[in-house]
Amino acid sequence: MTKQFIHPDDATRQAAKYALLVQDGVNLRAIVAQMLRDIDAIRKSQKLNGDAINSHPVVLAYVSKLASLTQLSTEREVAALEGVERLANGNAVESEVIPL
Known about the structure:
By secondary structure, the protein is mainly α. It has helices spanning 10-21, 28-46, 50-54, 57-69, 74-88.
């Protein structure tokens, strides 16, 4: 495992602030849209790609929120992947909706 040193430049500081703000959010689309903007900003300002982006604290904060918002468990993840495969093959799927 390697480590990365992340400098708190303007783009990274702003992305970190947004990552904290979305922790109270419930609008999945808005959270994902902001996450993509922040990833682009971090990639540009920090010159990061691949594993460095995937392991960035800002990205992990967003992914954690998405997992929480979707109430993702191993069981739900497996069911979702099976459902996606069925949909891709043209089959209907029944999906559990868990209220927040």
